[in-house]
User: Fold these one by one.
Assistant:
Number 1:
Amino acid sequence: MDTESIRLFVLAAEKLNISAAGRELGMAPAVASAKLAKLEKSLGADLLRRTTRKVALSLEGAEFLPYAREILAQEDAAHAALGQGDVSATGTLRFTAPSTFAQLYIAPILPEFLAMHPGIRLDLRFTDMEFDLIEGSFDLALRYSALTDSSLKGRKLADDTRILCASPNYLKQHGTPAHPDDLNAHQLIAFKDQSPSQLAGRNGEKGQFNPRQAGCRLIVDDGASQKIATMAGAGISKNALWSVHRQIAEGSLVRVLPDYKVDDQTALWLVYPKSNVLTAKVRIFMDFLLDRIDKSPAWVDA
């Protein structure tokens, strides 16, 4: 398979412009169109939909795109192993991360990264929705959970302590729980799946934060909205300490059941598909995040 044609297809898919992709590779428009047509014939599928006004990915093209990127990454890695080719950090890096963490800790440092690496273009998706990395053609993702997917590799970015908290006004009106069983009499705010979390006391006591058993009238799918609702007095919620540590320090939120630890073993992980070659752009971005987001950040629970 002609990797030059594959490189042309990847560029055309990113730019949605065959002529512009061809120019970047030093090809005349007619040559670029002919090369893509030959690639499509060899694959037996139309990868791009062409009209007089625009170019769009076909369904087959969207399915082939992550494999095309992988072929190019393997080729670049092979050249690098032989000391050949351009192994500098260039190209588009597709990265997805949970929106709240990204807004607080990643977005503010992006200008520094872009200034350091002018050859890299970032294509970012900051959302609490988890994308399939392979189907979505993502190079890298930030996940806060235990790394259980066998198709992924990862590097731990930081610990991810979870705590229960509420506003002072809510606790003044409804009382402060002294034991996990007291949560059943409170209004709990649940985050999407409502799954129970195990609580472990300092002396081995056990309990649960279980929205399914308690009065859960508010379910959200966004961490920032959950924090805002908690601060407004909507109830007791489970939050990442990195998200609420400033509000705890200033007193707009109060930690609930401070003698109990949320025992969910989550951490912040930078993950990428196991089948992918760790390209220069991905390695450099991972190293940058690991360096700038301190391994012992201010939010780590003592």
Note: The CA atoms of residues 146 and 298 lie 21 Å apart.
Number 2:
Amino acid sequence: MNLKLLTPCLVLAGALLFSCDNDDNGTPSLQIPDTYEFTRNGQSSVFYGGQTDRLNQTSEIKAYFQKGDKKEITLDAETLLAMYENAGGDGDGNFSFTSDRQLKDKTFPPDVAFFEDLFADAEDASAAGLDAANGTAGFITRKNGATMLVDANGHEYTQTFEKGIMGSVFLHQIFNVYMTDARVGDDVENTELDGSNNYTPMEHHWDEAFGYWGVPVDFPNNTANLRFFANYSNGRDPLIGSNKMLMDAFLTGRAAIVAKNYPVKNEQREIIYKGFELVTAATAIHYLNTAKELLGEGPASLGEAFHALSEGYMFIRALRISPKKRISDANINAILNTHIGENFWELPESDLSGLDEAIDLLVDAFPELADVKDAL
């Protein structure tokens, strides 16, 4: 493991080296590994298996939705609910693995009913088997000839589910659970190990937040097999530098926890809040730009446009989640309900100025995106 040397005079402490020197506050300074690997007594002190399970559950529920898009199955609300609740530890036989974790109990509480209603609505649309039209849920064809299932307003069920979970579970857990004072604040236990585990509670909570990102431990040098938010931080990276920003914050913060350098830990926590929110906003602009282009191509691209709009809409909706959000709820609601509008079918008949206004409101909240908004 390579280490980033910050100060001279080093003392070996587990898998990391820490400086003999102190910072201005008398707190030991630290060294930061190049990869997200931390050990104690020669064994890993990192574990986020629950997060990996929930990412896997999300992937398999998405795959179930996609079978409905292809008309291979008729979507069933009870099956979707069983997977969401992980009934029986295997989604009532619908998961390829067993786990005692679930998505439902980790969902942003106001959104649980949103997903349950989505499952019921998706079943009705799938069973009806109609062609989609304004006011009619059904199937619409994409440019490659594949079909996808949309609701009466043109929102794609698969993307509404996936991007919804990314906000309502993954971001919610990072923002409102694991990065809070209750989990990684300075008073959280960080000396005694957590039972028989090889980590302290503070270390573990930080790792669990990292687990929801979906990156490999050697990211960003390794960009294979990226999952969920990892895909989007990597996609936006050339324009906003999101990969190094977030990875450095997670690495530095975890090393600071081991060193008990809490001022540094808290600085990195703020970077993580801002970084994920910036990736979310930048990705929303990306999809609004894509939708504008596709809508301009005419009816043949309507399926693709609705796909992009469904993703962008849910990324904007996810901006509600952060307790430190830089965009107001009023502006989020204005973007969703007015500038984009709930009914996607009405957009091709407009001059698309609403999408430009939505982008402008996002840029107003995130001015660092002003110079790159057209390229996102």
Note: Residues 262-295 form the longest helix (34 residues).
Number 3:
Amino acid sequence: MTTPRRRFIRNSRASPPTRLRSCPVLLATAVALACRPAPLQAQASRIGGEVALASQLVDRGLAITPATPVLQGAISWASPGGWSLGLAGGVEARSPGRPVMALARVSRSWALSDDWRAQAGLLYYDYRRNRMPDRAEANLYFTYRDSVTLGLSAIHVGDDGERHFRGAVDVAVSWPLTRHVSLSAGAGIAEVAVGSYGPGHHSYYEHGYGYGYGYSRLRTYGYGNLGLAWSDGPWRLQVDRNMNSLGARRVYGAHAPPHWVASLTRSF
């Protein structure tokens, strides 16, 4: 899943750098990073960030970009009271001057007990390419000892003509195997729009985007990921196998669901 270790976009546990907006110089990061819950800050306010290179940008088991290297970057500010603001974004390495997406986030974290913490957040996704409509999302995450996270999301899509919210539920696990290596796994379900375009032609697309004309209705699909991550100080290398129940069906107009995705991240 872009999905909750949250890490650069999926869910990492440390103050979540946000996906940077349209700034080609400060490369922005992908959806998985900005969504991760941020840890509570006990001292002064702090600023953090991440830069990353990924083989593809994936969100909830679906491809945001073609299978081409994507440069990502994120920056965030966290207050002692648990508030956090962030920006993040990404550009294809072959076209660094043309951002593919940007994200803005505001969230609030608090402790529930010694083992549990919660985070509520509002996010806005601005898709600069791929002809996808923008979307707003409200989510609530519960994290157990920085190892297991459960998330609930309500999503509103800008240009699909619908007024109701779509839902998503996901869970992510990060389990240490050695000092530097950990197992990363996630699974979830979300709603996707199904459309019919032209006589006898059907296609699946996320966030209400499609070609031609026809009708759309919501369908629930499942997604997940399983992989290994190596980390040492500010560096993190991760390889994941992505899956979703849509199989070989194409999504986002032209991009088929990815299988293996690798990313190298540097935090600061």
Note: The two ends are 24 Å apart (CA to CA).
Number 4:
Amino acid sequence: MVAGVLGVLSAALYAFLEAQRAFDEEPLLPSEMAPPPQRWLKVLVLIALIGGIGLVSVGATMYDASPTCAYTSPIVHTWTFATLLLYAAFGMLVLGVPVLGFVFPLIAVALVPLIATLVTMVAWMREAGKRGAHSATSVLTRWLRTSNDDSAQQPPPTTIANPASTFGLYVNTAALAWLFGFMIIEARSAATLPCDAPLGTYVLGVGAIGMAMCLFDFVLEVFKDPMPPLTKLEQAKQKDDLRRRLVAYGWVAFVLVVWGALGCVWVGGAKSCAATSPSIYRLALLLSFVYLVVLAVACFAAIGIAVDFCLSGRLRFIVVFEQ
């Protein structure tokens, strides 16, 4: 209950910060700096962070000290585990960015055979940190230190994102990591339960692919260069990177389509899994439903594109009236 109340209040605070950021930055010129946040907003952000840390600490202690709740109150026990998993995913993302920025240079120094590639990676990480890496600790520290005296001097605007927008990146990734991590844990815990279809493998595959995709996209989004390509060489490199990324996403989409089709066949052929392994069966049924909905939306979009192609002048119909 406390986790739900804190989550609702934090979501409302995030929505207010995002709306205030958009309101403050709308009338500004590119050379102007947004006004500093008010002190009471800083206090609320710190209270939310301290409350989240305290909630995870107390909740983990209570969860570890209550092994019988899994039998006497299974729903509350499962939701407690899901809550702790969500907060742990968010905390790992917050701590992972500065750790990666510190560990990668050490790896570059230690591994001599790969020194050329790793030096390029270090330079990329260093430039990303200077020009706008979305580290939650650095953004929050800079945001809390901003005062009216600093804004009166009107320094050039930094490229580090507003903590509200950066917070959204961390929350979205933490939610996806929580979802896919929960699938992996459920699939591993139910691996010994009898089932006449490989639904555990299906759920485990979806969880592993989803976890890899969301973490990879998070790292790219955090350490990307916010500056647009200026030279022709940079523009050509960006086009090549985009082309390779589209090819990779195409292969991933193909694997997901094939894997989802296999999962639908397995769910349709399962007879005893609903009784012997209900958690995996419900997850597999949910994934199959989501797969069918996404496939239906994709088909609808393809039909719309085809209709637009036929009616936008690319395809002409000539009707001749004769007596």
Note: Confidence is low (pLDDT under 50) at residues 154-164.
